[in-house]
Amino acid sequence: MYINSRLLKSSRFIWQLRSITNSYGNNKQLTEAVSFIAIHLRNKQLVRISGPGSFIYLQSLLTNDMRKLLLPKYAEQSSSSDSRNQLNPVIYSFLLSAVGKVLCDLFVYRGRFITAECSDYESDGEFVLEVDKSLATAVKRLLLSYNVNKNIKVELADDLNLWAILPASLLNKHYSADTIDETLRPIDSDDLKLVADPRIGSKYFGYRFITRLGGSSLKDLGPYIKCQSNHERIRLIEGQITDYIRLKYQLGLAEGHNDVKSGFYFPFELNGDFINAISLDKGLYTSEEKTIKIYSTQPIKQRVFPIEFSCQNHTLRRISPAPNTLIYSVNDRRKVGQLHRRIGRFGIASLTIPLTSNNIPRDIVTQDLYHNDTGLKLRASIPIWWPKNFDQIYLNVPKYPECLFNFDNQNSHVQLT
User: Does domain 33-240 have CATH number 3.30.70.1400?
Assistant: First the structure.
């Protein structure tokens, strides 16, 4: 009996010691500085679109649903966990050609003087497009060519600065992100916008930060990031554009003119259904019928995959694989795809998903691949944010609306005959 009581007292002491240790660890986390990487995206250009009917104008051109920017019930359909049950300050979309192929990809930010009333959908509004800098002039010219009524104003928004805010854990493999809260509260105003990445969320690709008339240097961003963080101490470090591109390739994201070659790929081949860039319920837009046709002929036989070369960086500097070159399978010497771009050992490639005789997809990541021009070996991988059945289209069955631009069918101003 005496021994049992001593054991009981010692066990109580151990549990008390554990609780004290855990509470000390939690307090330490509260005072630990959280690191963020700020990257000035100078390879991007912001374009402002304003004027009566600007909402309808963009709704009839883009693959994504502009109503997600204005009404919560459409924002809830977003695949990003950061955007559920609230308005989306930004969406990601494609601009298609007449034959249904992607001309360019872009981000659309909600601007000023936007109203969500159905009776006022032609009121004056403003949207900001984020496009690749090398395509900004061409996109502006294309948008003006679609403006038949001459009531839309398209101009370069040189008064805005664009940054990518990435948690340091995304760029440092030895950094533990499980014990530290790296989320930032969003900002949605006329002069400042801090929003989670609309494609795969802030957990994997951080935030985008737009500032007006300021914010061109790193020291201007610190107070805003500190106010939106849950920690008292933050460390803001300026990163390079190569850090952004490397992480983008590791996640298997194709973005910008270097990755998305104009007029070569259909939206689903660029994983548009995975990154929340396509809406099947919005109604008519440019080449909408071609997109629906591809949707009805599943499975998708080609997608963009992240790839990694098996050699060292110094070998890649000596033998540099050129972009838009072929990739073959080691086993059967068969062409399986094309290299888009790379930075160091990491890159992205359009690869054909192999099928068996029963049209059952085989795993492309189990195959040994090599670059045709250089003979360098490489492997494809499946990003952690992808759905399980990546050969299928990751979208719900379309429910076509009665009216293309109506927010509420009960208040419809267009009568169907």
Answer: yes
Contact yes or no for 42/134 (Cβ under 8 A): no
Query: Per residue, what are the HEC states of the chain?
Result: CHHHHHHHHHHHHHHHHHHHHHHHHHHHHHHCCEEEEEEECCCEEEEEEEEECHHHHHHCCECCCHHHHCCHHHHCCCCCHHHCCCCCCEEEEEEECCCCCEEEEEEEEECCCCCCCHHHCCCEEEEEEEEEHHHHHHHHHHHHHHCCCCCCEEEECCCEEEEEEEEHHHCCCCCCCCCCCCCECCEECCCEEEEECCCCCHHHHCEEEEEECCCCCHHHCHHHHHHHECCCCEEEEECCHHHHHHHHHHCCCCCCCCCCCCCCCCHHHHCCCCCCCCCCCCCCCCCHHHHHHHHHCCCCCEEEEEEEECCCHHHHHHCCCCCCEEEEECCCCCEEEEEEEEECCEEEEEEECCECCCCCECCHHHCCEEECCCCCEEEECCCCCCCCCCCCCCCCCCCCCCCCCCCCHHHCCCCCC
CA 328-333-338 angle, 5° bins = 15
Regions of the chain with pLDDT less than 70: 1-32, 71-87, 113-124, 173-180, 298, 355-364, 390-417
pTM: 0.81
pLDDT at 75: 55
Burial class (CB in 10 A: 0-12, 13-18, 19+), 381: middle
How high is the pLDDT of residue 8?
41
- Please enumerate in sequence order all residues whose Cβ is within 8 A of that of 92, keeping only pairs 6 or more positions apart, or say none: 64, 105, 106, 107, 108, 198, 199, 275, 276, 277
Give the residue from 117, 94, 115 showing the smallest Cα distance to 105. 94
Q: What is the pLDDT of residues 108-146, one digit of tens each?
A: 998 875 544 444 445 567 899 999 999 999 999 999 888
Q: Where are the domains of the chain?
A: 33-240
Cβ atoms of 306 and 251 closer than 8 Å: yes
pLDDT score for 228: 85
Whole-number pLDDT of residue 326: 94
